[in-house]
Amino acid sequence: MKILVVVDMQNDFIDGALGTPEAVAIVPYVKSLIESFDGKVYFTRDTHTENYMDTQEGKNLPVPHCIKGTHGWEIRAELDALRKTDAIDKITFGSKDLIDVIAAEKNVEEITFVGLCTDICVISNVMAIKTFFPEIPLTVDAKACAGVTPQSHKNALEAMKMCQVKVINA
User: Fold this and answer.
1) Of the residues 92, 93, 141, 167, which has the fewest C-beta atoms closer than 10 A?
2) Is 47 helix (H, G, I), strand (E, B) or coil?
3) What was the pLDDT predicted at 60?
4) 58 torsion bin: left (phi>0), alpha (psi -120 to 50), beta (else)
5) What does the pLDDT read at residue 108?
6) CB neighbour list of residue 46: distance below 8 Å, 6 or more residues apart
7) Is the pTM of this model over 0.90?
8) What is the pLDDT of residue 125?
9) CA dist list (Å): 26 to 55, 129, 130, 160
10) Any alpha helices (H) in the chain, and if so which ranges?
C-alpha cells in the first residue's frame, strides 16, 4: 500500500496570515496529486489555541495562525473536499499521531509527502517518519511543496536528500 501525506494545506499557510505566492501556486498541483493517488491519503492540520502567543512557538513566531475553528485553520476547501480520512491535528511541527497512524497500517510500500511549509512542518514530519520507519521509502514531491522562502524550501529539500529521502520534481 502507498500513502500520501498532505501536510498543513491550510488557508493561513496558503493565502492567509503566513501565506506566500509559492503556496498559492502549488494548490492545483496538490489537488491533482490527491485526485490521482492510488493509495491512502492523510492530511495533517496545524492546530493552535487562543493562547498561541503565550507558547514557545508564538514567542518565536508572533503571528497568530491556524487557530482551531477559524477559517485560517481549515484545510483549503478544494483539497478538503477530497479528504476521506480524519485530519490529523498537530500542535507542533511534527506529529506523533501521524507516526501512530502509519504504525497501524499494514504493508506500507512507500510514503509520499507534499504540503507546507517544506522547511518547517514537511521536513519535521518526514524526519519523524524516517526515524520510526527507516525501511519505508520516503518521497517528497518538491513541486507540491512550498517553504517560508524559496531558499529555505531548497535548503530543506537538500537536507532531506542527505537523510536518504527521495526528492522528485525539484
Assistant:
1) 92
2) coil
3) 95
4) alpha
5) 98
6) 8, 10, 12, 13, 65, 66, 73, 90, 121
7) yes
8) 98
9) 30, 23, 24, 20
10) 11-14, 21-36, 56-60, 77-80, 96-104, 123-132, 150-162
Residue 31 one-letter amino acid: K
Q: Which of 143, 142, 138, 144 is nearest to 158 (CA)?
A: 142
All three cell numbers of 130, joined, read 524516517
**Cβ pair 42, 6 in contact under 8 A:** yes
Query: Grid coordinates standing for 38?
Result: 492510488
Q: How many angstroms separate the Cα of 96 from the Cα of each of 113, 128, 129, 132, 168?
A: 16, 8, 9, 10, 25
Q: What is the DSSP letter of 33?
A: H
Mean pLDDT by 10 residues, the chain (170 residues): 98 98 98 98 98 96 97 98 98 97 97 98 98 98 98 98 98
